[in-house]
Design a protein that fits this description.
about 70 residues, mainly alpha, elongated
Length: about 70
């Protein structure tokens, strides 16, 4: 697969990941943490804010593979 195509696909996947992850994390926070204290919200958003990095790293690693010649 050409590098340019891999980067295009990877960028689309990253956009889909970030948008869907933000929506899901917000819905979970709204449903589950509605009446929780502020520090529970802080912990939840801290960890959920970092969790999306793991799949994004895999996508970026895949995007940066050298093309076959």
């Amino acid at each position: 697969m050409p590098v340019r195509l891999r980067k295009l696909i990877g960028m689309i996947l990253l956009l889909v990941l970030v948008i869907s992850y933000a929506i899901v994390a917000t819905v979970i926070a709204e449903v589950r943490l509605g009446a929780s204290p502020w520090w529970v919200h802080l912990l939840y958003f801290f960890f959920s804010g970092l969790l999306w990095v793991l799949p994004a790293m895999l996508i970026i690693k895949w995007m940066e593979k050298p093309g076959k010649r």
